[in-house]
Amino acid sequence: MINKKVANVSEALEGVSNDMTFMLGGFGLCGIPENAIAKLVDLGVKGLTCISNNAGVDDFGLGLLLQKKQIKKMVSSYVGENDEFERQMLSGELEVELIPQGTLAERCRAAQAGIPAFFTPAGYGTEVAEGKETRDFNGKMHVLENAFKADFSFVKAWKGDEAGNLIFKGTARNFNPAMCGAANITVAEVEELVPVGTLDPNEIHIPGIFVQRIFQGDIYEKRIEQRTVRQRD
Question: What's the pLDDT at 94?
Fold first, then answer.
């Protein structure tokens, strides 16, 4: 069994440089690779293309990279919770490719599976389909979408072992599994890293073959994006 464990986030991000394309798991602030993002901010790499469902909030998640103007292009399906994301997009400072959420997930999964492209009905007849090949299947028009190409994929799991096998917890099982193995190098950060053989094989969501590097994160804030509470009676 190949040992994928690295000592820390610095070792996990070796090879990261300017003008690369990154996939980053998570949905809102749930299941985001907090340690990897913080290290990318520290490294100061610029000209990045980031593929993620959204861009966090102004002062957390990918919002930290946006604040430092490290991101050149965002490939996302949702903008709403990040004022700086919206401001940079409307001012033309940030290139943005908005994609239907299901298509975003499938372009990740296609890359993971080695499928170069696929047809989907989502987006036909809208700006999403402009400049793309379309084709009729059983009387319904579809749009050709290409699988993503990325240099690194950064994902966050609840628990993993030194071979890279991963278990996700709750809603953190969002874009993270589809991004594993979808880039040249997949880096997984976990809350708990255990020896090989500790995990129940029936509970593993992603096998280690999809992961090149794994480390245990130091700090997880796990912020709540929108806190809603009931008023006391």
Answer: 95
Instruction: Give 118's strand partners.
Output: 145
| pTM score | 0.93
Amino acid identity for residue 137 in this structure = F
What are the b/e assignments for 165-190, b being 16+ CB within 10 Å?
bbbbeeebbbbbbbbbbbbebbbbbb
DSSP notation for 167-229: E--GGGSSSHHHHTTSSSEEEEEEEEEE-TT-S-GGG-SB-GGG-SEEEE-S------SS---
Task: Tell me the Ramachandran region of residue 34: left when phi exceeds 0, alpha when psi lies from -120 to 50, beta otherwise.
Answer: alpha
State both tokens at 30: 């749930």
- Residue pair 26/33 in contact by the 8 Å Cβ criterion: yes
> What's the rounded Cα separation, in Å, for the pair 75 and 50?
6
Helix or strand or coil: residue 35? helix
How far is the CA of 129 from the CAs of 134, 137, 142, in angstroms?
A: 8, 16, 9
Angstrom distance (rounded) from CA 23 to CA 109: 12
Task: Encode pLDDT of 119-168 as tens digits.
Answer: 999 999 999 999 999 999 999 999 999 999 999 999 999 999 999 999 99
Tokens 């499928």 belong to which residue?
115
